[in-house]
């Protein structure tokens, strides 16, 4: 479950940013995660919610995750399109 190590890295970066901006509390974290990132969103949220409790600066922070869909570009017509087929999508045009 590499989501725990991702959450730990997020915590360290959030603490650094908070120090840099003299923040007293982090209240919300917004992430965009690509569909093919290999990250299990629910596991990352769970890991973050557990790990944040050890850090008073982040203990009440909420996390929002937006999944970024895949966008393909057709090599023949040049148009962009989305597809549920992650590996061999066909251009709808």
Keywords summarizing the entry:
single chain; 93 residues; alpha+beta; two-stranded parallel ribbon; two-stranded antiparallel ribbon; 4 strands; elongated
Helices and strands in order:
Layout: H1 3-20, E1 28-34, H2 41-51, E2 62-68, E3 72-73, E4 80-81
Parallel strand pairs: 1-2
Antiparallel strand pairs: 3-4
Helix pairs in contact: 1-2
Précis, in short:
This protein is α+β, with helices and mostly antiparallel strands and about 90 residues long.
3D structure, described in words:
Strand 3 (72-73) and strand 4 (80-81) form a beta hairpin. Helix 1 crosses helix 2. The protein is α+β, with helices and mostly antiparallel strands. The strands form two sheets. The protein has a two-stranded parallel sheet. Strands 3-4 form a two-stranded antiparallel sheet. It is built from two helices and four strands. The model has no long low-confidence stretch (mean pLDDT 92). The protein is 31% helix and 19% strand.
Give the rounded overall mean pLDDT. 92
The number of strands is: 4
Strand neighbour order, sheet with most strands = 1-2
Number of helices: 2
Class of secondary structure makeup: alpha+beta
Give the N-terminus to C-terminus distance in angstroms.
40 Å
């Amino acid at each position: 479950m590499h989501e725990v190590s991702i959450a730990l890295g997020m915590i360290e970066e959030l603490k650094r940013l908070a120090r840099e901006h003299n923040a007293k509390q982090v209240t919300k974290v917004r992430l965009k995660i690509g569909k093919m990132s290999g990250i299990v969103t629910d596991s990352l949220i769970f890991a973050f919610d557990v790990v944040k409790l050890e850090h008073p600066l982040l203990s009440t922070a909420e996390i929002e995750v937006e999944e970024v869909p895949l966008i393909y570009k057709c090599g023949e017509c040049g148009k962009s399109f989305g597809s549920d087929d992650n590996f061999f999508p066909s251009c709808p045009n």
